Amino acid sequence: MSIDTAPTVSATALDATSGAATRRDILHRLLMTLGPILAALVIAGCILLAVGVDPLAYYGYVLEKGLFSPLGIQQTLTRMAPLLFLAAGLIVAFRAGMWNLGGDGQFLLGAVTAAASAPVFVQIMPFWLALTCSFLIAVVVAMIWSLVPALLRAYQGVNEIITTLMMTFLGTSLANVLVKLVFRDPGTTVPQTRTLPVEDRLPRLFDTTITSGLLLGLAAIIIVHLVMTRTAFGLKLRIVGANPRAAVHAGLGVPGLTTAVFAISAGLAGLAGAVDIIGVQGNVRADWNPAYGLAVIPAVFLARMNGFAAIGFVFLLSVLSIGGESAARRLGVPNHFTLVLVSIVLIVLALAEYVDHRYNQSRKA
Amino acid sequence: MSSLSSSSVAARDIVALEGVTKRFPGIVANDSVDLSIRPGEVQVLLGENGAGKSTLIGMLSGLLQPDEGRILVDGKPTPITSPRHALALGIGTVFQHMMLVPTLTVAENLLLGGRWWQRPRTEELAARVAEITSTLGITVKLHAKVSELSLGEQQQVEILRAMVRKSRLLILDESTSMLTPKGIDELGALMRRLVEQGLAIVFITHKLKEAAAFGDRISVLKLGRKVGEIPPERFRALGEQAIISEIVELMFGKQSDDPEAVERPVRTVHAEAAPLLQVADLAVAPTDNAPGLSSISFDIRPGEILGIAGIDGNGQKQLAEALAGQRAATGGSVRLEGVAIEALSVGERRRRGLRYLTDDRLGEGTVGTFPVSINFFLKQVGAAPFWRNGVEQRAEIDKRATQLVREYDVRTPSLKTPVARLSGGNIQKVLLARELAEGAKMVIFNKPTYGLDLANTLASRQRIRDTAARGLAVLLISTDLEELLSMCDRIAVIANGALVGTVENVDDARTKVGRLMIGLAA
């Protein structure tokens, strides 16, 4: 029991030692994150070799299209906008210990309501007010969609992993139904919603094709990060997540906080859908489901629910998905190879984490 | 027992413990315990929760290894390295909670643990079970699903499993805690038949009546030490009442060499002062695994310490939680300074000065992964000056936390250390600092020294005395009678969720409380 015998150190000394410790900690974290990613790239390369594709060419195309070509990087940054909102929503939920896996349903319902309302609003209201109203409607609808899992979890203790997943299936179907039956554009033969004119969409940044939704996404994830780490509200959510019994003991209203977490998380997912529609797509086609919600989950885990790290991983994910699509086309690899790559990264990271944990345990013992 | 007699009969022991000590961080769970287990005897291991019974069983069944001392099997020192090894040595354990697979049949459960490459030998099993059950006079439905059996029947299956595996020593850990009175009597009869066949049984309980009814030899554990033993000769010579009173003396009696014994300083509580806390007819509904409370009434005046004595699990935790607002009361009133608070939330009760120091320090008292500094303010999240407009003021938090660390002598490497890394005593200091900080008027201490080492125990007790001396009302819940006698002004005894009596802490309080605890009138 070294702790018992250790003298109580004064506050100033504490800060100095812990400062060095944090730096070493960050270095260790970086090594533990980048090392496995490199290893995963090597493993994925071996798979490419096995199917007769030059891995260097593949990675080269990924980087060229996703990162280095002017058009590619603009597409990558545009893709980040909805992903950042989704990541922000997941950070709130995961830090509070609630596994909201219903992001896709909430995303699509937000997208559909935004797509349905925006073309109507822009005709009767000023531009900014119209877009704000559409965003708000998308947020409210997604929040309502999360109410069932939220209330079940808060008052009945029903596992939210199952309920949110089930609600996501219902949500995607409902979004489809809405597109085909209710909000269908009578002017086209394809089942899709009315298209928002390009000049009424979110403005593009400078002279590029990058949507200004990127800035909104960055703002959202940074605000979420600061709220979770620096405010009383964020601390309450983290207490609920880390030890629900301690939250009850400390007098926190756990059911209310649980419902709030689901509402915020779903609201951000709905906002992601709205930003993608109002910023980029302009309409929702029937059967459209990019499944961003599930793709973002690994990125948030890799970032350990840290907002700033999540920005980096969302960027990486965007590069991989934009560049991967192009590289796959050029080399004849299935489009889904991007997913294979991402999952190999995840598995290697998990293994590294396990080995690191075992190493720490054995060093302590 | 004299050393001469113990060495002459040692050869008869199936298993013997010699000076076995087991330590956990901050706790000595077993302190040089000697125990001899013989065929044909029911050895009762008696002690309250936390007395070290489970640790002892863990070491006998191969789950834990002793830090000091040795275990002899058939007279030879043998380290029991794993549960599998324990079974091979003939030591079978029936744990407190059923360890059967509910969706499988009895036969399938009995066959579990066979070699995986062989077909289960069902016929062989049936023959063996028939042989065992006929001599024991029990019937077991081999093809019934375990989930369809009553708890008593499941227990018989577990005992049968130990017998099928040719156990010579059967350990029954709190086996009566989930049985009906009839089931308990049947288990007693079964144990008797088993020992008549030459088996050795270790029977763990904290119920005195069962110990007296079923045992041949009783060993009493208290705070990790074996404080006494009643050998079979004495056991047979005494009547049931005499045995119980002797056990009470062993479990709750004062030891001459007790280092914790402190004379209670005479404090003057102003009898005319208005009560700070008034509880009247408080009731709580029982749940699946906890007793309810019924018509609990008491007053505590400023500067007074009221003790709640009783065997653990009789509603102490429910009482504390109902007062703190964590558990819904079904009736009754709670008044703090004359104001009714029974309808208020946990947070509102705390703001009015009611504080609850929980006994579950890591489970609900703290968030283990959070730094020490934040854990000081877990119940004040959002309150000025540590948060302004909802934003954390790290400098204010660190400043106050540094003060508290110094004031309460919390030994921590840094304020940022996750609180779970501290020892039990230091976590308790963090909780004391949090609950006794400014604004406290009435404090509930639930088992405040449970699991602490001596130095921290004494320090915690001094804190509680100081608290009362400052004019606060104190409710001290403890299963340690010594502790209550050394600190309280009055001691109430709780049994089955009701207060069965209140005793002024004067000369003969020890006997009176002890009698109330085992269900006799004071």
UniProtKB/TrEMBL annotation, chain A:
Pfam families: BPD_transp_2. Keywords: Cell membrane, Membrane, Transmembrane, Transmembrane helix. It is a multi-pass membrane protein. PANTHER family: ABC TRANSPORTER, PERMEASE PROTEIN, GUANOSINE ABC TRANSPORTER PERMEASE PROTEIN NUPP. CDD domains: TM_PBP1_transp_TpRbsC_like. The chain crosses the membrane at residues 37-62, 83-101, 107-128, 135-155, 161-183, 204-228, 292-317, 337-355. This is ABC transporter permease. Coiled coil: none annotated. It is found in: Cell membrane. It comes from Mesorhizobium escarrei. InterPro entries: ABC_transp_permease (IPR001851).
